[in-house]
């Protein structure tokens, strides 16, 4: 078995979404050797968004198209990109960070963690069993499979409401279930949903079990006020109840909040000197493409200043 290739960089970025690509652009412009590693293709979660209408400069743009613009911008600076790298382990040490993938070993003086977050699971019986057979976390990916069928979206935020609206292009009926009696989504998004005749709102309810034979056919739900349990006929379940950080690899090495998000200061500095976090993976009051990109810019600028300080100490 051949030994893995060892690659050394001044700045290594984990994650190729808006935070990672933004950090890459700033790192390369700062004239430090920069690389981005991602477990899949670049673009991150926004690549799955049907439409984005709150990113300045783009009145309305597809999520994939917007992230393609990000990546093309990064390519202008010839940043080293490593997509589809399965990360096996991460060892965080001041001035000497090691990231091992299934193919390579990366060494970096500074590290920016921009690994993002993933959709939270409902954690109920049947969810795992029917994944890909009626349970989906991506309406854009799977919506067409539910043409002329009934589907149920769980959640009340922007993602849930926007995906429910999108699913009306295919489904005959879309149930939008929320645990409260009002939505959390932006008012403009709510208004679109309320005007859509295909959307049926189910208030004060949570799913407790997903049932079916080969595919989903029934959702058992409970009223959050009366505890009454009932059955809802549905061919598909789309959970949109928030996101959980992809921070498991760093759990014992960095300071995190109770939900597992990495804690940083205003410079994106984590509890380990020279290691920064940016985007959805960190504790932040807002998780949007624009804030992730801003985080990446701040993190890369902080990393560059850290590297300059290291160089000055070596020279002295």
Element-level helix/strand string:
EHEHEEEEEHEHEHEEEEEEEH
Count of spatially separate domains? 2
CATH architectural label of the largest domain = 3-Layer(bba) Sandwich
The major pleated sheet works out as: 7 strands, mixed
Output the CATH topology of the largest domain: FAD/NAD(P)-binding domain
Structural class: alpha/beta
Number of E-type strands: 16
Helix content: 10-25%
Distinct helical segment count: 6
Gross geometry: elongated
Round the Cα radius of gyration to an integer and report it.
Answer: 22 Å
Mean pLDDT: 95
Oligomer: single chain
The share of residues in extended strands comes to 25-35%
**Are there runs of 5+ residues with pLDDT below 50, and where?**
none
Distance between the termini: 43 Å
User: In CATH, what is the homologous superfamily of the largest domain?
Assistant: FAD/NAD(P)-binding domain
Could you name the CATH class of the largest domain?
Alpha Beta
Protein model, in words:
The chain has six helices and 16 strands. It has 316 residues and is of the alpha/beta class. The protein folds into two domains: 187 residues, FAD/NAD(P)-binding domain, CATH 3.50.50.60; 119 residues, 3-Layer(bba) Sandwich (FAD/NAD(P)-binding domain). The strands form four sheets. Strands 1, 2, 3, 4, 5, 6 and 16 form a seven-stranded mixed β-sheet that branches. The protein has a four-stranded parallel β-sheet with strand order 10-9-8-14, with helices on one face. A three-stranded antiparallel β-sheet has the order 11-12-13, with no helix packed on it. Helix 4 packs parallel to helix 5. The longest helix is centred in the last third of the chain and has 27 residues. The mean pLDDT is 95.
């Amino acid at each position: 078995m051949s030994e893995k290739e060892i690659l050394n960089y001044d700045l290594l970025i984990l994650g190729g979404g808006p935070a990672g690509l933004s950090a890459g652009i700033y790192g390369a412009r700062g004239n430090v050797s920069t690389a981005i590693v991602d477990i899949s293709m670049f673009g991150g979660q926004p690549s799955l968004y049907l439409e984005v209408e709150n990113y300045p400069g783009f009145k309305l743009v597809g999520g994939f198209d917007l992230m393609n613009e990000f990546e093309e911008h990064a390519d202008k600076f010839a940043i080293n990109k490593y997509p589809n790298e399965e990360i096996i382990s991460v060892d965080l040490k001041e001035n000497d960070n090691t990231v091992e993938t299934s193919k390579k070993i990366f060494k970096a003086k500074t590290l920016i963690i921009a690994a993002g977050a993933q959709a939270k699971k409902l954690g109920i019986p049947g969810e795992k069993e029917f994944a890909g057979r009626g349970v989906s976390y991506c309406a854009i990916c799977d919506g067409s499979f539910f043409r002329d069928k009934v589907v149920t979206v769980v959640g009340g935020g922007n993602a849930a409401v926007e995906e429910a609206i999108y699913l009306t292009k295919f489904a005959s009926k879309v149930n939008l279930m929320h645990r409260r009696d009002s939505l959390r989504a932006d008012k403009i998004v709510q208004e679109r949903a309320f005007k859509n005749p295909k959307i049926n709102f189910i208030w004060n309810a949570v799913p407790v079990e997903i049932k079916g034979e080969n595919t989903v056919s029934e959702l058992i739900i409970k009223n959050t006020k009366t505890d009454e349990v009932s059955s809802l006929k549905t061919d598909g379940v789309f959970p949109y109840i928030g996101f959980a950080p992809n921070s498991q690899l760093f759990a014992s090495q960095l300071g995190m909040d109770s939900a597992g998000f990495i804690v940083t200061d205003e410079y994106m500095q984590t509890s380990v000197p020279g290691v920064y976090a940016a985007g959805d993976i960190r504790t932040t009051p807002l998780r949007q493409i624009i804030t992730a990109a801003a985080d990446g810019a701040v993190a890369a600028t902080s990393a560059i200043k850290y590297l300059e300080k290291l160089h000055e100490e070596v020279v002295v």
